[in-house]
């Protein structure tokens, strides 16, 4: 019996060429359209729901800590394969399409987490409590909009644009699931990353054995306030590895512009907030970033979001045309609907569902964005669902610019609602939350539908599974958000929640007239320059907005990916199978690093809430001095990078044919 995907199987799947795909009318799915295979079962739903909650929690922690989330589709596929492998040994079998349902439901939690933490968490910055019931209502309404609006776009984006839009996570998931239904090998890889990260963060955060953060500020000549540093934790390095050196470089580039150019110029020019005027140089740099630079990042994100919509106008028009053809019941559509692999939930459900959700946004007491807010939310959600679904087809879900779309929505909603007399920024945040959640869920849904398309799944079953997963995620989202707020405080050093802080800042600033419009304009002009240079705007904008201590370790992870790829490429064969095999291992171990740190964050938070150990700082500090902690921190970082590299490269570097 096989134990996990074999190397030659992985290589065979990963080396699927474009010529093989275009030689026929679309890809030949693993399960033919005419074959009936067990798919949406109670067993698959229960496993999917359990994993859904775990990855929801992990990604909420990661997003509030780093300002970025990653797609959970690949680790979800690997973990679900491991579960089915264990069930098979116990005499309970499972099909590849059941496995696909599990990963579809699991990744729904990760997607919803992104929308919630980027927007709803912002109420804490406005001195408002986390409303658990209200969070659940907003999350489920936004999530369902994301799924519903993706239905009319599926055939155009997933089927018609199959060659143009690769959907990297969706294709990778299909390759992993095709490699075999036994996931022992993949589970061992993710377990390695999880264990290393879990122990690393327990030593750092639980016992204060070493520091993970190293930073400094300095002057050069007459210019003051240059700042550099990093919070070198496993999760941030794992994020950098997964998104790769190019995107990580864009993020770091934005950080350098903010912390090594803009902040020194402002400090030297005397633009230091009064409260930090007599503080250390590093404190001054942080104060300037908080007071001015975040608005620059917001301006860049706004332009980036609108530019994405403009670039997507053709896609939106084509998707609407496809949807209208479905409603009219054209002959072509009727023929396609007879094929199992092309059956979607009916378009009538999309129309009626969107109308019901719009009414609920106005009527539910915990939401109540008002009629105008409801209209803005639904219309903007449709537009940004199209943007999100297209963009993740090119760059992947981990680079889905949900925050940029939310910023654009906040700006529109705040200006529109202000004209009607609305003065509460929470109303603006809730309106934007619906849009952000819908966009995040649509990106994940499109990746899952791509996986299903390659495997031969029934789209209708996946869409139902997504809805169930979103409903469960929404019920837990408010509770998890409240848990982290009680444990650490949203906006604290541990979970700064940078995106949520920015959303609250812009909402309040527009309504009160205190928004730093000059800084927003600077960011907007900067984004226009990047567009003219054909450089991606949103990764740069995120880098400007993030603290440099988060951008640096992400860049280190990207460099680690580049170094490993370069080393492997020297020994690779002509068809690239060794490099693909190494990439597979690296992504899975990196996912383990992220999951391990997130789970340790939950453990430490529980200790604080239960008042076990010290009330502040590490629960069980070893009492080392600052210098010793710094030295041990460097040693720990080197060890982490070394273990990760060995884990990725170990085993044969050639693939038998």
From TrEMBL:
Keywords linked to the UniProt accession: Membrane, Transmembrane, Transmembrane helix, Transport
Topological relation to the membrane, as annotated: Multi-pass membrane protein
GO molecular function terms noted in the UniProt entry: oligopeptide transmembrane transporter activity
Domain of life from the UniProt record: Archaea
Keyword Transcription regulation: no
Gene Ontology terms: cellular component: membrane
Transmembrane segments: 44-62, 68-87, 108-126, 132-151, 189-210, 225-243, 250-272, 292-310, 345-364, 370-395, 426-443, 464-484, 515-532, 544-568, 588-610, 631-649
Xref: NCBIfam families: OPT family oligopeptide transporter (TIGR00733), OPT_sfam (TIGR00728)
Entry protein name: Putative OPT family oligopeptide transporter
Species of origin: Natrinema hispanicum
Taxonomic lineage from the root: Archaea, Methanobacteriati, Methanobacteriota, Stenosarchaea group, Halobacteria
């Amino acid at each position: 019996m096989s134990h996990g995907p074999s190397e030659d199987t992985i290589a065979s799947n990963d080396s699927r060429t474009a010529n093989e795909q275009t030689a026929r009318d679309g890809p030949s799915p693993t399960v033919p359209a005419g074959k009936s295979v067990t798919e949406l079962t109670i067993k698959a739903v229960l496993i999917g729901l359990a994993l859904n909650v775990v990855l929801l929690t992990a990604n909420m922690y990661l997003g509030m800590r780093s300002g970025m989330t990653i797609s959970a589709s690949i680790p979800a596929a690997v973990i679900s394969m491991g579960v089915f492998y264990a069930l098979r040994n116990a005499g309970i079998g499972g099909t590849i399409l059941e496995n696909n349902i599990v990963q579809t439901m699991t990744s729904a939690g990760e997607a919803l987490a992104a929308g919630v933490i980027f927007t709803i968490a912002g109420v804490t910055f406005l001195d408002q409590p986390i409303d658990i019931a209200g969070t659940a209502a907003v999350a489920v309404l936004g999530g369902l909009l994301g799924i519903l609006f993706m239905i009319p776009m599926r055939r155009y984006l997933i089927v018609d644009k199959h060659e143009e839009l690769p959907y990297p996570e969706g294709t990778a998931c299909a390759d992993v699931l095709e490699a075999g239904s036994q996931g022992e090998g993949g589970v061992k890889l993710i377990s390695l990353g999880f264990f290393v990260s879990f122990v690393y963060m327990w030593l750092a955060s639980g016992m204060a054995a070493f520091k993970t953060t190293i930073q400094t500020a300095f002057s050069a000549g007459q210019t003051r306030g240059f700042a550099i540093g990093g919070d070198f934790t496993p999760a941030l390095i794992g994020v950098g590895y997964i998104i790769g050196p190019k995107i990580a470089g864009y993020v770091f580039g934005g950080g350098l512009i903010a912390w090594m150019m803009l902040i020194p110029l402002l400090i030297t020019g005397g633009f230091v907030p009064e409260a930090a005027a007599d503080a250390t140089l590093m404190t001054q740099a942080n104060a300037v970033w908080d007071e001015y630079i975040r608005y620059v990042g917001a301006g860049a994100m706004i332009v980036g979001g609108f530019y994405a919509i403009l670039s997507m106008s053709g896609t939106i028009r084509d998707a609407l045309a496809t949807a209208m053809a479905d409603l009219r019941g054209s002959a072509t559509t009727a023929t396609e609907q007879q094929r199992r692999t092309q059956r979607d939930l009916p378009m009538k459900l999309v129309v009626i569902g969107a109308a019901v959700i719009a009414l609920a946004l106005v009527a539910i007491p915990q939401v109540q964005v008002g009629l105008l807010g409801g209209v803005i939310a639904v219309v903007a959600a449709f537009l940004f669902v199209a943007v999100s679904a297209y963009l993740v087809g090119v760059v992947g879900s981990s680079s889905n610019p949900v925050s940029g779309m939310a910023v654009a929505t906040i700006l529109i909603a705040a200006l529109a609602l202000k004209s009607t007399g609305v003065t509460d920024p929470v109303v603006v945040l809730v309106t934007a939350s619906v849009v952000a959640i819908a966009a995040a869920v649509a990106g994940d849904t499109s990746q899952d539908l791509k996986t299903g398309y390659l495997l031969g799944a029934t789209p209708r079953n996946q869409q139902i599974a997504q809805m169930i997963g979103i409903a469960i995620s929404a019920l837990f989202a408010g509770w998890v958000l409240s848990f982290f707020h009680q444990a650490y405080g949203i906006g604290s050093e541990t979970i700064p929640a940078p995106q949520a802080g920015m959303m609250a800042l812009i909402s309040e600033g527009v309504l009160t007239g205190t928004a730093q419009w000059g800084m927003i304009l600077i960011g907007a002009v900067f984004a226009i320059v990047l567009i003219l240079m054909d450089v991606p705007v949103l990764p740069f904008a995120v880098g400007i907005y993030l603290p440099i201590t988060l951008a640096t370790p992400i860049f280190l992870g990207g460099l680690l990916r580049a170094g490993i790829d370069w080393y492997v490429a020297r020994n690779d064969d002509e068809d690239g199978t060794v490099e693909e095999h190494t990439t597979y291992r690296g992504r899975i171990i990196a996912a383990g690093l992220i999951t391990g740190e997130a789970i340790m964050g939950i453990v430490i938070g529980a200790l604080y809430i239960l008042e076990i150990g010290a009330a502040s700082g590490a629960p069980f500090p070893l009492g080392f001095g600052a210098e010793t902690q710094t030295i041990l921190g460097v040693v720990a970082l080197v060890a982490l990078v070394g273990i990760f590299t060995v884990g990725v490269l170990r085993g044969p570097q050639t693939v038998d044919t």
